[in-house]
Amino acid sequence: MLAAADILDKQAEGLGELITMEMGKPIAQSIAEVHKCIKAMRFYAARAEEFLADVPLGNPGAVGASRAWTRYEPLGAILAVMPWNYPLWQVIRFAAPALMAGNSGLLKHASNVPQSALFLDTLFERAGFPVGSFRTLLIGGPDVAAVLADERVKAVTLTGSEPAGRSVASTAADNVKKSVLELGGSDPFIVMPSADVSQAAATAVRARTSNNGQSCIAGKRFIVHTEVYDAFATEFVKLMSELVVGDPLDPATQVGPLATLSGREELAELVDDARVLGAQVLTGGTVPEGPGFFYAPTVLAGLTEEMRIIQEEAFGPVASLYRVRDREEALRVANQTSFGLSSSVWTSDAQEEEWFLANLDAGAVFINGMTVSHQELPFGGIKRSGFGRELAADGIREFCNLKTVWKA
User: What is the pTM of this model?
Assistant: First the structure.
């Protein structure tokens, strides 16, 4: 695993260019993605033995044994169905813990990042893993069910859309196999009166436009208390309107093109639906002229329940802005979608912080900061954002058999 990390380290700039060419994120973010993979690989190389160590029962006599313990054992071949938005990171955060646990991996990557998929196909064998430890399958979506049904495949993990997750989870259930699903989110970003409004606004821009806005854990719905709404909105709209949109290979670019034409069309439809139903477009809301699947950084306000964007995930640089009267209304708006991936709360009131922690429907709460995945922290959601966890100790244990041992 350390050798595989070293390969990425030596090729970081070239791999960054490959990612940018395939899916359009700004080059600095692509190179950062490679380094994030390297960090996670080295993390699991260092911590896997600790995470998978036997756990003895402190009082075996209570169960009539001289010794009793649990141990973690690999399941076998794990199928990973992965998306294009983080072509290396999404795969490595599965592969590093799965391989370190003793499993093998089968990757069905998104069809629009084939070069990333082929690089990953040989990476681990080049680093010294046994032949067949990890393989890329160049197959289409309709072929996934047959692979998952194969008795040699023991479990599946998917990051993607809700329909894809339903399909894969159904096939896994039919074959009594474990599945881990991460199906996106429409994360709330709540700003209360005690917050540092200027810092919150600046962070909100990064949260909404990182990866050209194509991130499951991006802040998408900005829920702001009425006492600070005007100050936040003014700063937020100003910063969004000043973002540099252009060639993603130019280091000065902050927002590049969306990955696909269909993705831009779906995003534009959400904005147009809201506009027709009375939403205010505070900035953006347009498709720039010229080549590339660009969409202008956009802020919408005055949203009402009948608008699609209230419930649907906006996968691109489009922010929804809400004015709320109190923390109860902020929570109602935050929890009103079917998603529950992550969330961000801005407050310096300890009691208020604890109240939101206890009541937000989310797999994670980030306080006074934007949601970011870290290999040290479990990652995953609730509700229709999926189930199971990646990363940290929980992630490496997901694809293990927890075996109980009792000895007389």
Answer: 0.97
